Amino acid sequence: MFENLSDKLDSVFKKLKGHGKLTEKNIEDGLKEVRIALLEADVHYRVVKNLVADIRERSLGKEVLASLTPGQQVIKIVNEALTTLMGSAHEELTLKGHPPVAIMLAGLQGSGKTTTAGKLAVYLRKTGRKPYLVPADVYRPAAIDQLIKVGGQVGVPVFPSRTEMNPVDICREAQDAAQKEGCDTLILDTAGRLHIDADLMAELVRIKEAVKPTDILLVADAMTGQDAVNIAKSFDDALDIGGVILTKMDGDARGGAALSIKAVTGKPIKFIGTGEKASALEPFHPERMASRILGMGDALSFIEKAQEMVDEKKAIELEKKLRKNQFTLEDFKEQMVSIRKMGSIGDLIKMIPGVGTSKHFKNLDVDDKELTKIEAIINSMTQKERIDYTIINGSRRKRIADGSGTKVQDVNQLLKNYSQVMKMMKKFNKGGLRSLGRKLLPF
Fold first, then answer.
1. pLDDT above 80 for 195
2. pTM for the model
């Protein structure tokens, strides 16, 4: 996400940092390029005009021009301006009220409402709530079946809607059913259309009046750019939405919708969809997103993802194994599975400050299929082989390769990499961090 914009802004800032002292002309030239970069990223033209004017006013101040690092000061100003533009801070879901409370999802067909309903249920369950999915779209063929399937996949109960039922009645009856199920949060998956029309809005208003949801979230496709912004404004005018969930952010290299929605509608982006997995729904933090756009990484999101996947007891056991040089291939596989659950390796690398923009990592194409291959190889080993890799001779390597659908060379490479890590850990345990550092660093 934001790949094109990030590259162009990075180029502008490199030029600015190249000047020991900045002049008004340097800044004006830089701002022209920033303006073009934002417009090419499909940011709303009025938003671009106001944003550039704000950056210009602050950048031409004496404290910046007289600074020892004026280029860095301009980057700081742009970071703050982008953060403010997107809403300053993360806005939580509104869930106050007598349970079960309802969250209503609205949006056009194809925006990803049904899959987002499942992802939101997974997110809410992590926060300690008990979600209940409600299929209220009786018009789209198989919409109800789709949500029932999603609910089954994520282990969340689903109200048994029928196509002959009225959507308003479905939502009302679902409140009683959720209470009997012991659930405290309804997620209403309402109908969409291919375009905004009076019938759609009227039905959504009736559902809102009948159920009185504590939050109404518009689900919009980030890849539609300014259309997403216009759709958000239309739904807000009719329903007074509480916020937006932008889906398919992982496929949007421009990012104009994310940068425009808050400024145009006044309503915050609360979540972004970043992939197909049930866990690929992230709370939207404007300050973290601004850092990502400017190539500064997003350490907090990286840490939060890691914390979600790490079992504290297992981490302590693993540390002991590493110290005693007892880290087996089975342990290696478990750690790899945990990393894969966090998301795409390429996306994780970009979150690490300074790494995502490093020339060594910038164009790194990390194939997540390689991890699947490694897992398959280890799964094809016997328990004894996983515990003691030194017993894996030529015939065993052939058997493992055949069993995992890989080549003997792949098995050899895995064992070579693993043995090098184990040798490194031995040296680390004996000589300490300083000794290990000397082995790893090229100076």
1. yes
2. 0.68
